[in-house]
Specification:
With 317 residues, this protein is α/β, with parallel strands linked by helices. The chain is 45% helix and 18% strand. It folds into two domains: 140 residues, Rossmann fold; 160 residues, Alpha-Beta Plaits (2-Layer Sandwich). Bound molecules: magnesium ion.
């Protein structure tokens, strides 16, 4: 199953509410209203609100409009302009019930308005509605990035993560490695044991590969039908070989029967590739090298991995 840290944040036990208001008395009122059910955080300026959004990733922001310095509109615009923060819903809290202000706020991406003085029943209902919607969209986002059969990251998630990791390693002049693996004679496995057993086999192999990485920023994904890939940022070839070694050992321990294989067990072949990416290059070359290594592993008898480490000069296009 996916490691909890694969999503960058765990689902919180309690939803997180960030209350932004330059008047502490207003924050106190909302805190009293919600502190039982939610984790309530506070900010007394626009700048502080943005910092807290980055560090806390709240599930909802209650945002005062009129504040000295950066006002609520500016905070909302900044949140919506940042891809990492744009999914955080914003409810404006406003002292004046002016239609023009509401239109402006909604156009900036706010989901609702609450008028001062705060009515506890209305505020509670609106906050609960928005939190429910947020929970549902978080769930959908996660499902869209998970492979349904194995629980690993899916191809789409993998592509996003690989690119991010690649660019980060290029910036830091660090190596990046991948391990691509393919289940040996999987078609024969399905023909022999049927597709239900085939699915169980895929899940077991996925689990072994997921367990063979340790660090929170390593990603294991389903790459294709019976192909899996581990993306290992800041990892030299030796480290990636260690991941492959762990993976092979775990698979051997799980001892899945495959009578059509020489060993009598389910085995995999893998390609391990490492490069130090150059700025403005793309990760495709790394994957091509890993595919080449996988091909060598298969050609030389399967149930093994083959490694290729490239000098970065080979990766420039
Ligand atoms: Mg104010």
């Amino acid at each position: 199953m996916p490691q909890p840290n694969e999503w960058g944040k765990l689902p919180h036990a309690k939803p997180r509410l960030l209350v932004v208001d330059d008047q502490p008395i207003n924050i106190r009122l909302i805190h009293e209203l919600f502190s039982q059910e939610f984790d309530v955080f506070m900010a007394t300026s626009g700048q502080q609100a943005l910092e807290k959004c980055k560090s806390l990733m709240p599930d909802l922001v209650l945002l005062d409009i009129v504040m000295p310095g950066m006002d609520g509109y500016q905070v909302c615009a900044a949140l919506k302009a940042d891809p990492a923060l744009s999914d955080i819903p914003v409810i404006f809290i406003t002292g004046n019930s002016n239609e023009e202000d509401e239109v402006k706020g909604l156009e900036l991406g706010a989901v609702d308005f609450i008028h001062k003085p705060i009515n506890p029943v209305i505020t509670r209902a609106r906050v609960n509605t928005q939190l429910k919607l947020k929970r549902q969209s978080d769930l959908l986002r996660q499902v869209a990035l998970i492979d349904g059969l194995t629980g690993l990251a899916n191809r789409r998630r993998y592509e996003q993560e690989l690119l991010t990791a690649w660019l980060q390693c290029a910036r830091d002049n660090q190596p990046i490695s991948v391990v691509i693996c393919d289940i040996d004679n999987f078609k024969l496995y399905n023909d022999t044991y049927g597709h239900v057993a085939g699915d169980a086999c895929l899940r077991e192999v996925a689990q072994c590969m997921a367990n063979s990485v340790q660090r929170p920023y390593d990603l294991v994904a389903r790459y294709g039908g019976e192909e899996f890939i581990a993306v290992l940022p800041r990892t030299w070839n030796e480290g990636a070989q260690q991941v492959a070694t762990n993976f092979f050992a775990m698979l051997q321990l799980s001892a899945l029967k495959h009578e059509k294989n020489v060993t009598g067990l389910v085995t995999v072949s893998a390609g391990v590739a490492t490069v130090v990416p150059l700025p403005n290059s793309s990760p495709e070359k790394l994957i091509a090298i890993a595919d080449e290594a996988l091909y060598v592993a298969k050609k030389s008898g399967r149930n093994r991995f083959h490694c290729i480490a490239m000098d970065s000069s080979h990766v420039s296009e």
